[in-house]
Amino acid sequence: MEHKKTYNALELKTKHGPIIIEGPVPSRELKALEFHEDLVAFRPPAQQHKAITDIADLPEGRILIARDRNMIVGYVTFLYPDPLERWSEGNMENLIELGAIEVIPKFRGTGVGKSLLRVSMMDDALEDFIVITTEYYWHWDLKGTGLNVWEYRKIMEKMMQAGGLEYYATDDPEISSHPANCLMAKIGKRVPPESVQQFDQLRFKNRYMY
C-alpha cells in the first residue's frame, strides 16, 4: 500500500507565545531540532528523540510535532501496531496506530494536544486508513496533573475526539483489565467494508467462545 504523507502546519497562539504545529516531519529535520527535557512519559528524552526519528523513517511512520522555535515541546506518532498486540494480527495494511502523544507540562491545557491531532487528520491520505489508539491509565501522568483516573480519561477522550477518533468497544484483555482503559478509532471515508469487518473481528476475538 502506498504511504503518502502530505505536510500541514498551523500556528497556535498560547499564553506562553506562538507554537508551530506541523508534520509529518522527516527524520533529518527532527534530528536537527532540540527535544525538550520534560518529554519523559515513555523513555528518557534523548532515547525518545531517537525513537521518533526512527519512526519517521518507516514507510507508514508519521511524526507531527509542536515546536517552540527550535525546540520540540510536543509530538504525536503514527505507525503500524506493535507485532505483539492483537491489532497487528490481521496484517492490515490500512490500519495504523496513534502510538504516543505527549506535550510538556508547560503547554498542557493550551490546546496543543488537540491541535496536533487536528493537523494530523488534515492529511487526506488518512481517509484510506483505520487509525486506532489504545489508552491505558498506567501511561497517564496522574501524579503530575493531580487528576484522578476518570478526570484524565475525560481529557484524553476530548483530545482524541478533536482528531475525529471515537470510542469503540473491545474484548482485548489489557483494555478490559480496567474500566478507564479504552480503544478509540477513526475509520477513514475510503476504507472498504471488508477492512471494517476485519477490524471488528480484531476487536472481538472471544465473541464465539462462551
UniProtKB/TrEMBL annotation:
Gene3D superfamilies: 3.40.630.30. InterPro entries: AcuA, Acyl_CoA_acyltransferase, GNAT_dom. Pfam families: Acetyltransf_1. SUPFAM superfamilies: Acyl-CoA N-acyltransferases (Nat). It comes from the Bacteria. Keywords: Acyltransferase, Transferase. Its EC number is 2.3.1.-. GO terms for molecular function: acyltransferase activity. Residues 19-189 form the N-acetyltransferase domain. This is GNAT family N-acetyltransferase.
